[in-house]
Amino acid sequence: DGGITQSPKYLFRKEGQNVTLSCEQNLNHDAMYWYRQDPGQGLRLIYYSQIVNDFQKGDIAEGYSVSREKKESFPLTVTSAQKNPTAFYLCASRSRGSNTGELFFGEGSRLTVL
Amino acid sequence: RKEVEQDPGPFNVPEGATVAFNCTYSNSASQSFFWYRQDCRKEPKLLMSVYSSGNEDGRFTAQLNRASQYISLLIRDSKLSDSATYLCVVNMVGGSSGSARQLTFGSGTQLTVLP
């Protein structure tokens, strides 16, 4: 079955540690996105990539980094520079030619900093 | 003013009730509009796109009012399974670009359907 897989689903880290969240899709989508969701808030765009080896900052990129070495994969690293990293992280993808606006989301990764 | 604004709720309604949500947007150049559904601690999923002429999908009806810059979602004959958070999503430019860069999410309206 086609879809997006995020891992891990739950992650705990100590302050000062970097952590990498995995996102893999087999939908053959060109575009991939990382969002952050905090309680009672909408999704905020961290980074996005429309093609392999290229990515752009979203609205809240500070303290995060990404890579897009393969079409299927778009990992997100939450660095120690991110001041408030505890959140629900959602990866999404979309067909580049899509005109429906539909984003396909992974199940999310819930990061808690202790 | 937020770019996309929704009443956070919660809306608590009995089974079988009709409930309506509104969402206002600030950018008059916005081109396309969507409603997503998000269950508790799960990922959002597209519920329906919103077209200028209004559209219906079973018990769900979406409307767009460009003059007043709002979209609405009407749910008829509410079911327990409709309990979720409903996210309003606005694309600030033409949606065919393939980029979600301009997609702005509202903070969501929480609905609880009570037995």
How would you portray this structure in words?
The complex is a heterodimer of chains A (114) and B (115). By secondary structure, chain A is mainly beta. Chain A has strands at 4-7, 10-13, 19-25, 31-37, 43-51, 54-57, 64-66, 76-78, 87-94, 104-105, 109-113. In chain A, strands 2, 4, 5, 6, 9, 10 and 11 form a seven-stranded mixed β-sheet that branches. Chain A has a four-stranded antiparallel β-sheet with strand order 1-3-8-7, with no helix packed on it. In chain A, strand 5 (43-51) and strand 6 form a beta hairpin. Chain A starts with a strand and ends with a strand. Chain B is mainly β and 115 residues long. In chain B, strand 7 (60-65) and strand 8 (70-75) form a beta hairpin. The N and C termini of chain B lie far apart (37 Å). The relative contact order of chain B is 0.34. Chains A and B meet through strand 4, strand 5 and strand 9 of A and strand 5, strand 9 and strand 10 of B.
Outline:
The complex is a heterodimer of chains A (114) and B (115). Chain A has strands spanning 4-7, 10-13, 19-25, 31-37, 43-51, 54-57, 64-66, 76-78, 87-94, 104-105, 109-113.
How would you describe this structure in keywords?
heterodimer, A: 114 residues, mainly beta, seven-stranded mixed β-sheet, 49% strand, B: 115 residues, six-stranded mixed β-sheet, five-stranded antiparallel β-sheet
Instruction: Name the helicity range of chain B.
Output: under 10%
Helix and strand content put the structural class of chain B at mainly beta
Strand percent estimate of chain B: over 45%
Overall morphology of chain A: globular
Estimated helix fraction of chain A: under 10%
Average pLDDT of chain B works out at 88
Order of helices and strands of chain B: EEEEEEEEEEE
What's the multimeric state? Answer: heterodimer
- Can you count the helices of chain A? 0
Q: Kindly provide the radius of gyration of chain A, computed on alpha-carbon positions and rounded to a whole number of angstroms.
A: 13 Å
